[in-house]
Amino acid sequence: MKKLLFISCIILASCSDEIDIPLGHEFELDAQLPADENGYYHLELGYDWQTLHRITGQVSAVANEFELAKIEWSSSHYWLIGDTLGYIVHQNWTLNDNGYLYMNNDTSYVTWFDGAEVPTVNGASYSTMDGEINTMFAPVQSMRGDTVSVSAQASFADGHKSNVKTLKFVIE
Q1: How many Å apart are CA 96 and CA 74, to the nearest integer?
Q2: Whole-prediction pTM value?
Q3: Which end of the chain is more exposed for a tag (fewer CB within 10 A), N or C?
Q4: pLDDT tens digits for 101-114?
């Protein structure tokens, strides 16, 4: 008599593609100032040449660092550096042994920045993983009385670009 042996197998297999979790596309700006009835923000200049003001905002949080959003900033205003930024004075220095270090006693003016444009807002920033965004806005004294527009657009890791958002600052 022959015996038959039945072997029972269960094969477990999982054939699934990686699931892409879609990125959120939230994008909000916060001028860190109260808005007037027309939606304008009023920034009072300090006593220095340039007044620094932080603009914040929020984009969707992400799970991975490679998914951070890039924020591109622009402004309606910039300023030009004048004919000199400063100067350097070369002097003869007395050494500890009462000798002299020979140097040309001359004044050299730093002029290579002449006419350089300086934006009033940083050109780009990146979000944190929890979605916080920041940039610095820095108008100068000669802009007093102007209305400066600061615009931003978020670019997300999946290629989506947000609509451009604009904040308007009355410089006082």
Answers
A1: 53
A2: 0.71
A3: N
A4: 545 555 555 565 66
